[in-house]
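Extended Data, panel c. Modelled sequence:
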Amino acid sequence: MRHRSALRNAAEFLFALALLKSLEYTPRPAAERLARFYAALLDRFVPRLRRTALRNLEMALPELGSEDRRRIADGVFDSIARLLVAFSRFPRLDRRNISSWIRYEGIEHFEQAQRRGRGVLFATAHLGNWELSAFAHALMTAPMQVVVRRLDNPWLDKLVERRRALSGNRVIEKRDFARGILKALAANEAVGILADQNSSPEQGVFVDFFGISACANAGLARVAAHSGASVIPGFALWSRDERRYVLRFYPPVEITGDLQADTQRIQRALEEAIRSFPDQWLWIHRRWKTRPPGEEPLY
């Protein structure tokens, strides 16, 4: 990792802290407007994010017109704004008020999986509010473990980890992926894994994702087959009618031990959820960056 100066780390930390505090102590309606303003600034001053989103949409949903692609890209930044507001309020969320932010749907899939006694792997994505989903599950049911990649800025990393842990959740570092997860599953705990990002060929396998060959990390399928844990797709999806999130769990993904086929089934479950809520997925990530040998870059 490239060396980062202490001055840069401090400046980024203070900026992020000020942003969070401005949202935490502002009445919620005003905080939502302020967060949309912050997201609009991100959109304007980091134009490569929107370019990536539009390119992804052009490839993944070619049937859409330019206006529909633009509308979905707008929704991505609105979704980021909602995530920021919720994340800023984590210190104020508890069992008494969490239901005003989120409710369950499909909780029976998780309960049935946990009764098997072999742990539960939540296969999730950067869809809706992935931070709130784990945080709220700890308050509404029981703490869980979440797999994360450490942020390059250690000050920011500690800030984010402290907030994630406020509801009782624990963090598993991505570099300690297998050992940490297997230990948690052996105790019949739940582990959340973001499974929608681009992977390197060394860690992943190529699967079909929106009709395009995509490199997906095979670790989730490998651990599931080894442990016998259930793989439950789950996402915190924004409901415009209710003005809160719905933490929706889907039926378990079949795991057979065939690494390629199992990873494909997991990615198919993610794709189906994203297709249902396209403006809530993080299209600004270069999901199809890694190409099969001999293929030209897509970005």
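The chain has a mean pLDDT of 96. This feature is highlighted in the accompanying rendering.
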